[in-house]
Specification:
With 215 residues, the protein is mainly beta. Helices cover 10% and strands 40% of the residues.
Length: 215
């Protein structure tokens, strides 16, 4: 199994993704990070002020200095933080939610930044692969076949993928995390909901379509 698998860009006819599909999202590509926050479709994700000058590589929000986040991790026995930052997560209905993403050497965490409540913990052993858009946008997905997948947006998508590779490397001699790089990808937004995301560059701008697959 190849650790890094690049797929050729797929050309799609316009009628394959009709604009009139009710209830489907067509978000624009997230822009690059500005200052100490991330702008995306009118939403700004701002880092905690105490975390801006963190020395810890990969931790952009200062998990060690946040007693609530530290308590959640310590309850799970996690101490080594490989990555921590704010992201935007897409729900199964297509809504965007601000989330804290933390990657340790044992698990991946998604938390509500308003309440510091743990929304989801994914054991790294359950992660099969990650998907990265091959265009200049911020979309990526975490594929978890035994549960459901997570589509997110971050200007640090490459660093997130690298952190997952570092966390899983060498844990099991026969296990390798796949990294899929392409302009189109299918993911399970829920057990019974499969969606397709297509990223396309038009006139110098990246446009992204997310459609629900029927049947």
């Amino acid at each position: 199994m190849n650790r890094l698998r690049t797929l050729n860009r797929i050309q799609v006819e316009p009628d394959e993704f009709p604009v009139e599909n009710a209830g489907e999202e067509t978000p624009a590509a997230p822009p690059e990070e500005e200052g100490d926050g991330m702008q995306f479709m009118g939403m700004k994700v701002v880092r905690r002020r105490s975390a801006i000058d963190q020395d810890c590589k990969g931790d952009y929000i200062g998990v060690d200095s946040d007693k609530y986040l530290s308590k959640i991790l310590s309850k799970q026995g996690d101490t080594r933080i490989l990555f921590a930052d704010y992201v935007l997560k897409f729900t199964s209905s297509g809504k965007m939610k601000k989330r804290i993403l933390i990657i340790t050497d044992f698990a991946l965490y998604l938390l509500d930044p308003e309440s510091d409540k743990l929304n989801r913990r994914i054991a790294l052993a359950a992660v099969e692969s990650t998907w990265l858009s091959n265009l200049s946008d911020n979309f990526f997905a975490i594929v978890v076949p035994s549960e459901y997948d997570s589509l997110m947006a971050s200007c640090r998508k490459k660093e997130i993928s690298d952190a997952l590779l570092e966390a899983t490397e060498g844990r099991n001699s026969g296990y390798q995390l796949d990294v899929v790089i392409s302009s189109r990808f299918e993911y399970h937004a829920a057990d019974d909901i499969v969606k397709e995301i297509e990223c396309e560059e038009i006139d110098g701008c990246v446009k992204t379509r997310i459609t629900k697959k029927e049947g």
